[in-house]
Design brief:
The protein is mostly beta strands and 770 residues long. It folds into two domains: 101 residues, Immunoglobulin-like (Sandwich); 629 residues, TonB-dependent receptor, beta-barrel domain (Maltoporin, Chain A, Beta Barrel), CATH 2.40.170. The strands form eight sheets. The protein has a 22-stranded antiparallel beta barrel. A five-stranded mixed beta sheet has the order 8-15-16-11-12. It comes from Dyadobacter luticola. Pfam families: CarboxypepD_reg. It is found in: Cell outer membrane.
């Protein structure tokens, strides 16, 4: 009996065993032409199993156990790409779109993300897997970027970013390669004036469910990027599964997410990917539950439809749209009223949508063309009332403002490869922008056109040296009084030298231009002239970066970069506030006559060490020391508003596998950022007027305390035969540290008040994929 016991035990456990397996597959294409690469070698680890791409460039690994994998893709005459951090879960296939670039050398390639490299210096890929794994990202790629060197969060409530000492307004959002309006819910989140910003918000409207690998660039920018001086967040969409239907459902304190993807039919490779999200706070709002008197709601819908065309091309139709609102009502108990906001009724509404299409087509073995058309619009409004203490009725209209900002963007780009050593990229961008403030009936809509042709030539000087020379031109015209046509040439250049298989040095230069924030043009001065600043020209920036990178193996690297930025033609105050500069603006109205006679300077050094997730552990440590100053109308140099002097971030995590296909993960993130600056407040004058008045002729001499925030994320992933689940707890600011946000004069307290940022924010989520 004892001899057959092991056999019976094996039989019993086998009858209950689950067949847990899934598939990693994808397509390997030429990065320049988009043509499929037939016969490329794809290896997977662990297991070291090999695969060869078929006639359509596809590869497939089936019957794989759930877990972490890495892919290495090689092809004769092309650079080898290593893709780490692939998470395979039961119930969901992992589909990878790989682009290989030609190479005249067999040296180790620096590309490790699987995404096509778009710049030599200051570029960071953001993968969907990072947004799911990093602590307190709220599945937002902009919040992932706070782990990168030189990047600081402007406020806990929003994803606005200060990059290398530049204002968040200098960051450009792109979708599928073209410029769009601010793609965020609650675009007023975290601001001093409670007015909408042009580049940030509380939550990204585009769900992570639709994102492929995005790129974050800090400059200098290659020739295909224009109308930007600070940073670019270029979001790319992934296509849905073209072989099987898959579903994802997630419930969290952020909201309810439902996504579906799959083929339109079994006879076609056309696919769809759709996601809908409704905020959890909105559900509570329906039930009458509020947070600090605020009723916060948002919902959004995103989609990406993919249709293959003849000869390896594809046509996609994409779209995103969201509505959000934040309503604040005073407490009925007037004894709880401590600050001036407590006696106000504030209604804020935000609507945003974007839609368009892309068309990509290989033209030959040497050429391809890509065209994108997208339209986007943002509508934000804010109304504030003073509430009567006795009746709780609205007794006085305090403010009423709204804006509508729309863009139509077009781009077409031709890639042509003469041979392995010579490659040409040529194209143009067309952007039409309309900005209006209906609450000011005397102001006509502000319209502008921007035409941006560009050309870039890549030349492999030697087997280990590659250079790129480019020319971008920005031709802009504002349809407003006193506006002129601006024609601004912008040369770009970069070089990368591979010293040995593990070490490279690089350098980049670029001259860049950016139109002013629309609110500067539409400033009404002395209530008589709606476009007093319409003659402003774009701000320009010369930027230089030199870099060093050392690869210790396929998953470890050290990067050091030093940068210098000289901004000129900066709008500065030429009237009563001659120390004013546009480099310090976030959202507040200007109310000042400006001239393009200012300059600014940012320089610093950045260091980052990254270990991708291998052997169940990952780490990204980054830091920077920098200096950010500006010169006013009188020629005086001052520290800028965002001159925090340093940034530091630690992002790390460890995974543990237990029984029954269960994986636990512990992830931490710590941010230490030098405090930003503010102008001193004139307490006496503010008390007389009842609102915040800064000292006359003051600059940003008040430095807030350093910002420190530790975050924690703990998750449990469990695989079943046909589905997988993820239970996670995110704790933003797990220590509950009270970081300073800004200072203002409070009419109720009759004193200067320091407003703190958010404390501990717990977000519990449960995700099912099947």
């Amino acid at each position: 009996m004892l001899r057959i016991l092991p056999f019976l035990l094996l039989l019993f456990t086998s009858s209950f065993a689950q067949n847990l397996s899934s598939t990693i597959r994808g397509t390997v294409r030429d990065a320049d032409t988009g043509s499929p690469l037939v016969g490329a070698t794809v290896r997977i680890t662990p297991g070291n199993e090999g695969n060869i791409t078929g006639p359509d460039g596809t590869f497939r690994f089936v019957s794989l156990e759930p877990g972490r994998y890495q892919l290495t893709i090689s092809y004769v005459g092309f650079k080898t790409v290593h893709i780490p951090e692939i998470l395979l879960e039961s119930g969901k296939e992992s589909i990878n779109q790989v682009r290989l670039a030609p190479s005249g050398t067999d040296l180790q390639e620096a590309t490790v993300s699987g995404a096509q490299s778009v710049a030599v210096n200051s570029v960071q890929p953001i993968t969907i897997e990072q947004t799911y794994r990093y602590a307190a990202t709220y599945m937002d790629p902009a919040r992932v970027a706070t782990s990168f060197p030189g990047v600081a969060a402007a406020n806990d409530q929003a994803n606005s970013l200060v990059v290398r000492g530049n204002s968040p307004n200098t960051l450009q959002w792109r979708l599928e390669g073209v410029e769009i309006v601010n793609p965020n819910h609650l675009s007023n989140a975290g601001t001093f004036s409670d007015q909408p910003t042009s580049t940030g918000g509380g939550v990204n409207i585009l769900s992570t469910q639709l994102l492929a690998t995005s790129n974050f660039l800090a400059g200098p920018f290659p020739a295909q990027y224009g109308n930007v001086t600070g940073a670019v967040l270029d979001m790319n969409l992934r296509k849905g599964n073209d072989e099987k239907t898959e579903y994802t459902a997630q419930a969290s304190l952020l909201g309810l997410d439902l996504a579906v993807e799959g083929p339109f039919s079994k006879k076609s490779k056309a696919s769809y990917l759709i996601n809908y999200r409704y905020s959890f706070t909105g559900l509570l709002g329906v039930l009458g539950v509020k947070f600090g008197g605020e009723d916060i709601r948002f919902q959004d819908l995103s989609f990406n439809l993919n249709f293959p065309t003849a000869k390896g091309g594809k046509f996609t139709v994409f779209g995103m749209g969201g509505v959000s609102s934040n309503t604040f009502e005073p407490e009925k108990d007037t004894l709880t009223w401590e600050v001036e906001k407590d006696r106000q009724n504030i209604l804020y509404k935000n609507k945003m949508m974007a839609s368009g299409f892309t068309y990509e087509q290989p033209l030959s073995s040497k050429a391809s063309i890509r065209t994108v058309v997208a339209g986007s619009v943002l509508n934000a409004s804010r109304v504030a009332y003073l509430v009567d203490k006795t009746t709780f009725d609205r007794s006085e209209l305090l403010s009423n403002s709204d804006l509508i900002n729309g863009k139509i963007s077009f781009n077409t780009t031709l890639n042509y490869r003469f041979n392995v050593r010579h490659k040409l990229k040529i194209g143009t961008f067309l952007t039409y922008n309309k900005y209006e403030t209906p609450s000011y009936s005397a102001r006509d809509p502000l319209k502008s056109w921007v035409v941006q042709p560009f050309v870039a030539w890549t030349y492999q000087i030697a087997p280990n040296v590659i250079a790129e020379a480019g020319l971008h031109a920005m031709i802009s015209k504002l349809q407003a009084p006193a506006a002129k046509t601006n024609i601004l040439p912008e040369p770009r250049a970069s070089v990368k030298w591979q010293l040995n298989p593990t070490t490279q040095i690089s350098a980049s230069y670029g001259l860049h231009s950016q139109l002013q924030n629309s609110s500067l043009y539409t400033t009404r001065l002395y209530d008589i002239e709606p476009y007093s600043n319409s003659g402003l020209t774009p701000t320009r920036s010369s930027q230089v970066v030199v870099g060093f990178q050392k690869f210790f193996n396929k998953s470890n690297s050290l990067k050091i970069e030093a940068y210098w930025q000289h901004l000129f033609d900066v709008p500065v105050g030429a009237g009563l506030r001659d120390n004013y500069s546009a480099v310090n603006i976030i959202e507040e109205p200007v109310g000042e006559f400006l001239k393009n006679q200012g300059t600014a300077r940012n320089y610093g050094v950045e260091v980052s060490y990254q270990k991708f997730l291998t052997n169940n552990f990952y780490m990204l440590v980054s830091g920077s020391l920098y200096d950010a100053t500006y010169v006013d109308y009188l020629g005086q140099r001052h520290a800028s508003r965002f001159d925090g002097k340093h940034t530091f971030s630690l992002t790390s995590g460890k995974e543990f596998k237990t029984f029954n296909q269960t994986m636990w993960g512990v992830n931490v993130k710590a941010l230490w950022i030098g405090g930003f600056r503010e102008k001193p407040i004139d307490a006496e004058y503010s008390q007389k007027l009842g609102y915040t008045i800064y000292e006359a002729q003051s600059s940003y001499t008040v430095k807030l305390k350093d910002y420190f925030r530790p975050d924690l994320r703990i998750y449990r992933k469990k695989s079943k035969a046909k589905y997988s689940t993820t239970l996670a707890l995110d704790l933003q600011n797990v220590a509950g540290i009270k970081n300073q946000a800004y200072r203002y004069y409070d009419s109720v307290k009759r004193s200067i008040v320091t407003q703190n940022q958010l404390g501990l924010i717990p977000v519990l989520s449960y995700r099912v994929e099947f």
